[in-house]
Every structure is written in C-alpha cells, then in structure tokens.
Design a protein that fits this description.
Elements (H helix, E strand, L loop, with lengths): L2 E6 L3 H8 L5 E5 L9 H14 L5 E5 L8 H8 L6 E4 L5 H17 L8 E4 L5 H5 L13 E3 L3 H7 L13 H17 L2 E4 L8 H14 L3 E4 L5 H7 L4 H16 L5 E4 L2 E4 H15 L1
Parallel strand pairs: 1-2, 1-8, 2-3, 3-4, 4-5, 6-7, 7-8
Antiparallel strand pairs: 9-10
Helix pairs in contact: 2-3, 10-11
The site of magnesium ion has 5 residues, from helix 6.
C-alpha cells in the first residue's frame, strides 16, 4: 500500500469521492474527524459503505482508541461489513494490538468471516508511552499490516506548541517518533507508513516531504485530501531504474552461486545490498 486516504466516516460525499481518488486504501475514520455526538451516525454510514465497496481500494476503518469505551461499538457496527483492516489509534504497545486481535477474532467468528482476515494497522506514536514502546510490535502475527505514526496527538499529549520549526523541519521529539516508527516497522518486518501532512494546499512542500520519507525508508503514506494521493503514488512507486538495478543485484548474486559479495560495474555489493534489492522487488510484486 502506497497511499492511504483518510475519509471522515460520516461524510457520504467524501466517501464516494474517496473511491475515485486513486488511493490504494481508504481509512474511513470514526475517530478524530467525527464529533462525539455523530459517532452512531458515522458507524451506520461507514458500515454500509464498507459493505458496498468490495472491488476498489482496500477499506480500513479507524476506530476510537481502546481507552475511550467506544471501540467495541465501532467494531460491532463495522465488522459485519468485513473491512480489509482496522486502524488502531493511540496504540501504546504490541499488547494493544493483541487486545484488538482478540476482539477481531471473536467478531470474525460471529460474522462468518475467516479467522485472521482482518488486518491491523496501529498508529504507534500518539502517546509518549507508545513512542517508548515502539519495539514491542514484533510478535503481533500476520494481522499486522504495517506501522504508522502521528505527530498531532503526540504534540497535544506532551504540550508541545508545535511539531515543526520555522523551516518546516520536525523538532527533535517528532523526528525521534518518526525514526522510531521506521525502525519498529522494519524490525517487525511490516511496512513503515508515513504520517499525514495537514497543509494539503502546499503540494510542493508535501512532495518534498514524501521524497524525504521514501529516502528514509517509508514505503507508503497517509493522505488527508485527494490531491495528495497522486503525489504519494508517484513518489512511493519504485522507479523502473530502481527495479532494474535491484533485479541486476539479485541476478548477479544468483549467477555467482549466491556468495557473500559480488562486483557489479566496479562496485561492491554484499548481503545487505542483496536484502535491500529483494525487499524492493517483493514490494513491487505486491
Ligand atoms: N476524502 C475524499 N474526498 C475529499 C476529502 C477526503 N479526505 N477531502 C476533500 N474531499 C473532496 C471534497 O468533498 C471536495 O469535493 P466536492 O467539491 O465535490 O464536495 C473536493 O474533495 C475538494 O475538497 P476541498 O474543497 O479542497 O477541501 P475541503 O475544504 O472540502 O475539505 C478537509 C478539507 C481537510 C476538511 C478534508 O480534506 C477532509 O475531511 N480530510 C480528511 C480529514 C480526516 O479524515 N482527518 C482524520 C485523519 S488526520
Ligand atoms: Mg488523532
């Protein structure tokens, strides 16, 4: 998944637009973009939308976090529509994913769904404890489809007045959260997904930010506006050149009988290069 577009779960208009956006996945939101007194209505709209959208982008639903007392009602409403996955906000550790997985298992059984089909995508840096526990997602099992991060809730939680400096660079706290996500996802062998970019009119700054994210190891990104989707898809699709190079590395190792190190055009390539090339080819293969 390169692009994951957030769509408020109470907006039929935006939900319909989301399907046309070109996003690889939609994240239908029952959390922050839906007011407290609108949750019940949003659940009903979301369930119907999920049930009727089985051929386009993968549909994830973002539920309210496990401390709100709302999670079970969210899941109860949407699991009968069999979403591709659930996004868990404010996850504080791999144990939270485990707690959600137990609920999903029961709901899958009750709704006649195959055990384990529902993926989980947690947002792991929205609380201070979540950032510190980034390394605990390694044993979450095959439901875990990636890890992503958030800067807005963390700023609010800590009391930081901004998450970027005058030049638009994240401050240290948020760089730490961002890097922790890349490391945590790579360690757990799942996709690191970059966070949203709220200033959706500034496509130039967004493109720059995406390029930096892809350079640093993110393999996809969340969007909040349809205009961001094409940029994400473009930046996070490995170029033909990159794919050809990865294939050349894999081929060179195979041709040499899979040694520790090979030379290609006068440059050394060893096992980490091979691993990186294999990962890129696996990503392109889907
Ligand atoms: N998904 C689908 N369609 C969207 C969309 C989204 N996230 N954001 C905007 N659109 C649609 C609008 O409905 C509009 O279509 P219309 O003119 O046919 O109604 C079109 O795209 C252009 O929208 P625009 O006028 O540029 O933006 P806006 O002022 O209507 O909306 C936001 C701005 C931020 C409110 C909106 O983009 C949004 O709701 N984003 C998602 C918010 C969210 O889910 N946040 C939680 C995660 S951080
Ligand atoms: Mg939030």
């Amino acid at each position: 998944m390169r692009s994951l577009l957030f769509v408020p779960g109470d907006s039929e208009r935006k939900l319909a637009k989301g399907l046309e956006s070109g996003a690889d996945a939609l994240i239908v939101d029952l959390e922050d973009s839906v007011a407290t007194d609108g949750k019940a209505r949003a659940r009903a709209i979301t369930a119907e939308f999920v049930a009727s959208s089985k051929t386009g982008p993968a549909i994830y639903v973002r539920v309210n976090d496990l401390t709100t007392g709302l999670t079970d009602d969210d899941l109860g409403a949407v699991m009968k529509a069999a979403p591709a996955g659930i996004m868990l906000p404010k996850s504080t550790s791999g144990d939270d994913v485990g707690r959600l997985a137990v609920r999903l298992r029961v709901l899958e059984a009750e709704n006649g769904l195959q055990d384990g089909v529902t993926k989980i995508l947690p947002i792991i840096t929205e609380t201070p404890l979540g950032v510190l526990n980034a390394g605990t997602y390694g044993n979450c099992g095959p439901r875990l489809s990636g890890l992503t991060w958030g800067a807005e809730d963390l700023a609010a939680e800590i009391g930081a007045s901004a998450n970027r400096d005058e030049d638009g660079r994240y401050t240290d706290l948020f760089r730490f959260a961002r890097l922790s996500t890349i490391l945590a996802a790579t360690a757990a062998e799942v996709a690191p997904i970059d966070t949203v970019f709220p200033n959706f009119r500034d496509t130039e700054a967004f493109t720059r930010d995406c390029v930096e994210g892809a350079r640093d190891g993110f393999t996809g990104r969340m969007a909040i506006h349809p205009a961001q989707v094409a940029i994400i898809n473009e930046v996070f699709t490995p170029s033909g050149e990159a794919v050809a190079h990865a294939q050349a590395v894999v081929d060179a190792f195979a041709a040499a009988g899979n040694p520790g190190v090979v030379a290609i055009d006068g440059k050394m390539f060893d096992r980490p290069h091979l691993k990186r090339a294999e990962r890129l080819l696996a990503r392109v293969a889907g």
